[in-house]
Amino acid sequence: MQAVAPMTFADLRAGMSARVVRVDEDCLESLRLQEMGFTVGATFQVLKVAPLGDPVEVQVRGYRVCLRKNECRCIEIEPLS
Amino acid sequence: MLVGNPNAGKTTLFNRLTGASQKVANYPGVTVESVVGTLRGTDSSVTVVDVPGLYSLKTSSEDERVAADVALGKDGEPVDLVVYVLDATNLARNLFLFSQLAETEVPILVALTMTDRMGSAGQRVQLDALQAALDAPVVDAAGDVAGAIERTLAAAKPPSLRLPLTPEVEREVDALRELMARRGVDSTRAEIRQDLFNPAEEFQAFLHDFPEVRESFEAARDRLERLGMRRPSVDVAQRYRWADEIAAQVIATDAAPKVRRRTGTERLDAFLTHRVYGLLTFVGVMYLVFQSIYTFAAPLMDAIESAFGWLGDQARPLSGGNPMVESFIVDGLIGGVGGVIVFLPQILILFLFISLLEGSGYLARAAFLMDRLLGWAGLNGRAFIPLLSSYACAIPGIMAARVMPDPKSRLATILVAPLMSCSARLPVYVVLIGAIIEPQFGAFWAGFTLFAMHFLGLVVAIPVVWLLNRKVLKQRRLPFVLELPPYQWPRARDVGLALLNRAKVFLKTAGTIILAMSIVIWAAGSFPRFTPADPVAAAAQAGVDADGAEAWVQQEQLSRSYLGQFGHTLAPAFAPAGFDWRITTAIFAAFPAREVVVPSLGILFRLGGDVDDGSDDLRAAMRDATWPDGRRLFTPSVAIGLMVFFALCAQCMATLAAVKRETNSWKWPAIMFGYMTGLAYVFAVAIHQIGKLFGV
Q1: Lowest CB count within 10 Å: B72, B75, B77, B81, which one?
Q2: Interface contact flag, A31 B92, Cβ < 8 Å
Q3: Strand partners of residue A78
Q4: Residue B557: strand, helix, or coil
């Protein structure tokens, strides 16, 4: 079976919606992100990518926050169509 | 005690509750500070404390932990009541922290903010339902919060919260509860759940005495772990499930859902964070801010300077004709404090803009735009305000670093802010470029040198931050989380009180640490006294004519003082940089404040202390200055080395005092002083030595 590379924040484009599918437990960043509302199953929408390519602005649980792509590597996501 | 998420409207509520009766309090070793005030409009004397906003009581930096400890009364004063500031527009995430707080056994009153914003979206929060769900009294923050606080204080009880449990967890909790009951310990499900997920210290001590119970708890944790329900994320997920449910229950939609319109915030953001217009607006806003600091502050600073000059003149007769007392009062006391208070206009103007930008929500957008640029150097998007302000003056810059909630980035920013070339360095550049560079190399290179000096600090800051982040700042690193709150009009009361608090903090620092340091430096330059009975005769003896006698006495006084002796002693150490004892003494005289260097050079080159950076006499004297053996003193490599030394060195005690105040520790100003002075020395020596190889 061919493994599909897990999708992370680095693959996000403005306007996309996505769902958190898995979080890496051993990473401190992941816990803070979960506390910010990115729990497994949470859906969010990418509103904007900053002019220089990073950070990304997303809407999750009704509020807006921006995050650096590489600091969200411990969160695996899947796109919603 | 006011607790809540960042951006929940805590400070606005605090200002409304306490008015101007505010005091800033800080805690040893961390950058956290809380504001303390007295509850207005009630007969009782209730003390209200505003601590920095928190996202979680658990995953936190050292600073956030201190804030949490203060909030829960673990640190000093016990807390009678926590007023939990709950943002109605952001219920789920705000309820997450509430669920953690509810387990700490403190009584809670919930103050619901931003209800007007909900109303304009056709929604409202049903207070009764929320009150029942949270088992805590709820009040609209726009209503009579003070009255609610008084009423709740009279019958305060901690809420007993029932977090929903997944079946697996519930099974374990029930089994453990039964086990504990058999040992004669009755506990609620909530208590067992907490013992299982986040055992308190007392409970761990209890387990120590009952190994079988401990084994049961550990076995339960292991089983949950094998189910893929590792503790921290299960805990977070459960709290959010609970929060989402409550949010869904208590929000009522009044107006029929219309076609969804873009909100004002979305329309503004389309422009303000646009890749072209957003960046242009940002540049425009920053230009306005810094232009204002220079333009509007200048007349105020001149006014303060002349006020202190006048005060000095008024104080002269107090000395009773004793020149030493006169010098102490006028130069030591009044001059020292005046030299610091002169920064107040810049600080206030900068903080006026910061309050407006932060209060409106624009600051977060600007950080969003700039993050990539600064993140590359190991800082984050919010660092642009402190760093840019430091080009005017590092003191407001360092104070402005409080816009950064992450303590690690904040410390890194504070530590490099003084490398930015502040306006007090300009006179040094002007004198040296005018005396040495321009006559020899022409106007183009003079301009280039001035530009290079301003750019140098920024370039040096990048490797310094890199090293600091890896070697010195060993704190837990949390991800950069930047909330973009909806835009709103800044409130005049919030802006005014923020300015008032900053001014109070700064003046307190100026009146204590800085005053003490001014006196020490004044004494070092004034003792032992050199007062020849007949200055003209003494000057003649030294081969100086009567016209130059006064300047000669000034030179001798400084040369013979402790400061001058220090300069003479350390001159050999600065010889590799090509500095003689005069330059060395001028450098040491400038450690309290670098702008002192020009009058010091005037005295040391026997022109008296009244020279300024435009003085042709001083330029000529420096150009003609020689070593005792007739070699030219100010070669281009010495001049550039000296400018670079001033560009990098921490010659400003007010900055060090500000760092001490902001970091609440002498450690960071000591590190800053050490690394900046070290860098300055190494660069000056390297430039002179390389210059010598090329014969300049």
Answers
A1: B77
A2: no
A3: A19
A4: helix
Picking from A24, A63, A71, A75 by the largest number of B CB atoms within 10 A of its own CB, the best residue to mutate is A63
Q: What DSSP string runs through B423-460?
A: GGGHHHHHHHIIIIIHHHH-HHHHHHHHHHHHHHHHHH
DSSP annotation of B122 reads: T
Model confidence over B60-79: pLDDT tens digits? 666 677 777 777 777 667 78
pLDDT higher than 80, residue B254: no
Q: How far is A44 from chain B (nearest CA, A)?
A: 14
- Cβ pairs bridging A and B (under 8 Å): 118
Distance CA B245, CA B129 (A): 12
Distance CA B455, CA B247 (A): 52
Residue B75 is given by DSSP the state S
Q: Which of B17-26, B347-356, B468-477 has the lowest mean pLDDT?
A: B468-477
In this structure, are residues B24 and B13 in contact, taking their beta carbons and an 8 Å threshold?
Answer: no
First vs last Cα of chain A: how many Å apart?
Answer: 24
Distance CA B527, CA B521 (A): 10
From A72's Cα to the closest Cα of chain B, the distance in A is 8
Q: Is there a contact between B404 and B382 (Cβ–Cβ < 8 Å)?
A: yes
| CB count in 10 Å sphere of residue B216 | 17
Give the span between the Cα atoms of B613 and B652, in whole angstroms: 19
Where are any strands of DSSP class E within B179-219? none
Residue B14 tokens read as: 């605090």
Give residue-wise pLDDT tens across range B273-306.
888 888 899 888 888 887 777 678 778 888 988 8
* Model confidence pLDDT, tens digit, residues B109-135: 999 998 888 777 778 888 888 888 888
Q: Do residues B664 and B628 lie in contact, with contact meaning Cβ atoms separated by under 8 Å?
A: no
Best of B166, B221, B233 to disrupt the A interface by mutation (most A CBs within 10 Å)? B233
User: Which pTM was predicted?
Assistant: 0.77
**What are the angstrom distances between the C-alpha of B400 and each of B383, B647, B675?**
9, 21, 22
- In sequence order, which ranges of B72-164 are alpha helices (DSSP H)? 91-101, 115-120, 127-134, 145-154
**Angle formed at CA B575 by CA B433 and CA B570, multiple of 5 degrees:** 110
Predicted ipTM of the assembly:
0.90
Q: What is the pLDDT of residue A1?
A: 45
- Cβ atoms of B37 and B18 within 8 Å: the answer is yes
